[in-house]
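2024-03-11 09:14:02 INFO worker-7 job=invfold-0412 stage=load source=structure_tokens
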């Protein structure tokens, strides 16, 4: 495994664009550090400091940081599809197979790299969240600090799932731009399935349950938006906006299932393709 990861990291390091995108994908999630220190002066009447609003208190901070940090995954998604596009355009895929790398090892090298970067991103956002929370949170009890740390697991699984999908699209079309365009097509298809389910069942709740099993929606549902939750902490009497924001085991299983399927399909494509 380490040999395959080292091989892939060497390829990425030699590519200037990949180096820059990896750097950006790791740095941008730390904008949450900047947000935590922002002070907004409203024409001298009062100053709004985000860190003093309570949104960086434990345990809600785990939910907030992982949700917003997940939006920066698109930068590394470009790296993932570029890994495949460069293999075909630079003929390195064929050369690697000639040098003794099996097709299974080739796909595994990509998957191990995805897991490696997802783990690194999770550890970094976890450390950033922990230290921001220690600075701003009024709660210091260990039971409260680590109460919702499962959002980090959801963040990790979400990254692995999304990058596995990008790997599959990269293998399918062999071009970075087209692979990313397929994400938009899949997004539209999932909404068409939703409307189809709505026409069949005549109920939006059932249609959304169907949509929750689809790739992009299942990844999104791992970490629900925290906006309503923030409002709930400020206005607890508004029970009508209460919702289930927890991380559920079956949501993780669904995304892991899609991840395994995308890796398997990527391998099957490579195995059957004439190089």
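2024-03-11 09:14:09 INFO worker-7 stage=emit residues=275
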């Amino acid at each position: 495994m380490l040999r395959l990861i080292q091989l892939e990291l060497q390829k990425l390091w030699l590519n200037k664009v990949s180096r820059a995108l990896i750097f950006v994908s790791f740095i941008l999630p730390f904008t949450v550090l900047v947000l935590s220190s922002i002070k907004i002066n409203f024409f001298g009447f009062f100053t709004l400091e985000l860190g003093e609003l309570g949104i960086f208190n434990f345990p809600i901070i785990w939910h907030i940081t992982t949700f917003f940090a997940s939006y920066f995954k698109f930068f590394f998604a470009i790296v993932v599809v570029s890994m495949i596009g460069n293999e075909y355009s630079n003929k390195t895929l064929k050369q690697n197979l000639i040098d003794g790398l099996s097709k299974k090892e080739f796909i595994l090298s990509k998957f191990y790299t995805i897991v490696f970067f997802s783990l690194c991103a999770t550890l970094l956002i976890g450390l950033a969240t922990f230290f921001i929370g220690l600075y701003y949170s009024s709660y210091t009890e260990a039971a409260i600090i680590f109460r919702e740390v499962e959002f980090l697991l959801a963040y990790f699984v979400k990254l692995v799932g999304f990058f596995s999908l990008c790997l599959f699209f990269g293998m399918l079309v062999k071009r970075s731009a087209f692979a990313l365009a397929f994400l938009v097509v899949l997004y539209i298809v999932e909404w068409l399935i939703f409307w189809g389910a709505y026409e069949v069942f005549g109920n939006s709740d059932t249609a959304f349950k169907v949509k929750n099993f689809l790739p992009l929606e299942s990844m999104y549902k791992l970490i629900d938006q925290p906006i309503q939750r923030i409002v709930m902490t400020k206005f607890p009497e508004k029970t009508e906006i209460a919702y289930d924001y927890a991380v559920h085991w079956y949501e993780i299983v669904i995304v892991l299932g899609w991840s395994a399927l995308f890796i398997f399909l990527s391998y099957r494509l490579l195995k059957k393709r004439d190089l």
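2024-03-11 09:14:09 INFO worker-7 stage=report msg="The two ends are 24 Å apart (CA to CA)."
2024-03-11 09:14:10 INFO worker-7 job finished
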